[in-house]
Amino acid sequence: MENPLAEQLINLTTDIWELPDMTRVIDLEEVQRQQERHPSPFHFTEIVSEAINSFLYQMESSESPRDMMALHKGLLLEEKEAITAALKEAIQQGAIYLFPYDVAAVLEQHQLPFTVDDLMRNVEENWLFGFIMPALPDWYFLTFVHRLEPNDTYTTGFKKRPNENV
Q1: pLDDT digit string, tens, across residues 53-70
Q2: CB 127 within 8 A of CB 147
Q3: d(Cα 101, Cα 137) in Å, to the nearest integer?
């Protein structure tokens, strides 16, 4: 029998967000470890929902997924529905990742387009998610979701360095 949280995450991404083909790389043991270190009054599915919402709809940074998709598709930022549709289509072929609490160790082991210093928000206070999409192969997006205020989210993009595979 599958873990109840895993089933809830599948339902969330498939039924609510209508992203059935998006790959979910979320270690459920890591979720538990992070919850034990920094308890959150919010269910993890709420956290993931806020991350997806931020990824699809926020435009707080000039490197946001919305800005990059608009540029890629030749859309105006005012064409909000078209940008959202393009992002939803693109993330179906992509993935959402939950970074482990010790993100510094991950950065030491893997060549990523950002460093610990680039993580503008404290990882202790925020869940950290990564998004990648084949439609925007030069970009890696990070979404921060505050552990105690999940509607306090921020998504930004990082351009991959040449010859870098994430």
Answers
A1: 999 998 767 889 999 999
A2: yes
A3: 26
